[in-house]
Each structure stands twice: as structure tokens, then as C-alpha cells.
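The instructor's notes for this session suggest beginning with a concrete chain rather than abstract definitions. Hand out the sequence below and ask the class to guess, before any prediction is shown, which regions might be ordered.
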Amino acid sequence: MQKAFGVLPNLPAVIANSPKLVNSLVGLFGQVHSPGLSEAENQIVLLTDAVANSSTYAVAFHTALALQQGISSEETAAIREGRVPTNERFAALSTLAKTLIEKRGHLSDQELDSFITAGFTKEQVLEVIAIVAASTITNYAGSIADPPLEDPFRQYAWRGFPQRTETTAAA
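After discussion, reveal the predicted structure:
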């Protein structure tokens, strides 16, 4: 990471303070970034998870990585705004990832079929589960530790969705 950005990102540095956490993540992230889904597809899942988990650090970080992987700013903006990307594969990945988080892994047959119909396999559903597991750990660690964003990621800072007030909820 230091080679890619010229700086060691703050969140991995915080995670390194817990040997149990860092050792757990090293193996899991090694598998997440191994052959299977493309790195761009991984970033779609990781960015979606960051938004679904309201992890401001991870949203900025994965926006930068997604753009580096050639994902358009329109697609990253859609995810950051809670919308589905327009690319069919990205839409299927984003929808599956968000649904896994929101429904705690309890997918309907229709939700699984929609993912498969978009050109994925049942094995790739399991890959997405691994990505969601890894990103949930880092999203939670980031939310608790609240590390500052490094210079390369500040332009992608995300403040989350506007909070609903009783006035907006009643409207």
C-alpha cells in the first residue's frame, strides 16, 4: 500500500496494533485479492460495503482504489449516493453486497437468481461473502478508530447520507 500511495494508510496502521486482528485479516485479504473476481469487481463490493456500513474512511479509500481500477466516477458516485451502478455486473455485485449486509446473509432465491442471471456463479456468491466479511471487519475498525484521511484520499471524503430528522421522516 505504501508503494501504491506513497504513504501507509492510517487504517491498516491502526489495525496493526492488534496482532489478532491483523493476522486474521492478512489471510482473508490475501484470498479476497487472489484470482477470482477482477480487482475492479472487488472494489465495487468493497465500496458498496463501506457505504452500507457508513464507514467514512473506507468510502474515501475505496473510491480512490475503484477509480484507479478504471471504474468511472459516475459508477462510484452512484454507489456513494446509495444508488445502483449502471453497469450490469457492477449493479449485480453492489446489490448482492448491500443485501448481504442488510439481511445478514439471508438471501431469497430471487436475490440469488438475479446475481446468477447477471453472469456470475454460485461460487462467486461465496467470494462476495468473503469480501463482505473482510470489509466489515475493516469498516468497523475504521468507524471505531476514526483515523484521519491521508492526502491522496481527502478529495474523496464522504460524510455519509443526510440524517433523517423527525420533520423529514414525517414528510
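Then share the key points. The mean pLDDT is 86. Residues 13 and 147 are 9 Å apart (CA to CA).
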